[in-house]
C-alpha cells in the first residue's frame, strides 16, 4: 500500500512537544532499540525507522496477529516513519549515512561490530555529524570479553541477577512474563540520550556514544544484592512473592484470587493487625519495628493468610482500604481494561491502525504537565515513508525508482 493513500490518525497538539525538533534514526529491531525510539517519539521526536525490505522488523510477526500484523507492533512503532533499506548493500548504507548526517540521535541494538562492518563506526559517523548522539544497546556492551556473544533480554535478566530471584524457593527460576531486560535497557538508553542531548545543548559539547548492556541495565535495579554479598557474604535467594528482610509484604490467598499486602511500615502494621482482628500482634513490643517482624514473618504471614482466605478479593480490598493498608489485586489484562482509574488517567487509549481497525493500547508514561506525550500517527507498514523521506534528502523520483528496481529500497 502506498503511504500517500494511508490516513494517519493524529492526536491534536494543544501543547508543545518536549522533543520537538529532535530527529532520531532508529536502526534497531524487536524490543530494546525500538522501545527507546517509541518513547522518544511519544514526546515529539521525529523517528525514522530503518528496517529491511520485505518482512521488516521481526516484531511485526510476534505474538498475536491481526490483519497480518502483530498488535504489539501497533504500540511499539506508533509515531514512527518506516524507511525500508537493505543495509547489506553499499548504496543503502550510503542512503543511511545521509539520513544520519541530518539526525540528532542514532539508536541501534545490533551485535557489536555490525555498524563498523557497514562503514558506520562512531568515528566515521561523527566525522559527518559531530553532534550525533549514538545509542548502542547490546547483550554485553561494546567492550569486555563477552562483547561478541549473542545476547537477548532473557540472558541479560539471568546474568543481571534477576532470574535467580524470580521463583518459589527450591523451584525453577521463571521469567517475569514480559521482556523486562530489553525494556530496562531501553529506558536506560532514553536516560542516556537525554543526558547527552542536554550536554550538547547546554554545555556546547559534541555528540557522544551511549553504551548500554542488557545485563547491566538489569543489574542496576537489583537493589542491595551486591552490597549484601560484599559486606556479609550473603547470597540472596528466591523467596517467591515475599520481599526478604521486609515484613509483612507478600501475596495472600482469597476465595477468588490473590491479594498483595504491604504492611511493612510500623504504623501500617499496627493498622493491618487491627483490621484482621489480631490486636495481640498489633500490640506486641517486638513487632513494633521491622527487625522483630522479620524474625516472626512466618507467624505474621500465616495470620494474614488465615484472614484473607475466607474472604473475597473485593472484601479484602475494601476492608484494608478502610484501614489505610496498601493492598492490591493481582490484575489480569481484563482487570486493567475494565479499571476506571486506568481510563481516568488516560492509560488506555484507542488507536486507529493503518489496517483499518481500532485497538486499545497503553497510554504514555511519564506524564508531563506542560509538554505531555502524544500519539500523532499510527504504526507504519514496511516502507510506508521511504519515498517521502528520501525525497526530503534530495533524491529525485528517478533516483528513488532506480533504488527500488535494484531492491535496495521498498
UniProtKB/TrEMBL annotation:
Organism of origin is Comamonas guangdongensis
A Pfam cross-reference name: CoA_transf_3
Q: Does the keyword Ribosomal protein apply?
A: no
What InterPro entries does the record tag this protein with?
A: CoA-transferase_III, CoA-Trfase_fam_III, CoA-Trfase_III_dom3_sf, CoA-Trfase_III_dom_1_sf
Protein name (database record): CaiB/BaiF CoA transferase family protein
A GO molecular-function descriptor: transferase activity
Name the domain of life. Bacteria
Print the keywords alphabetically: Transferase
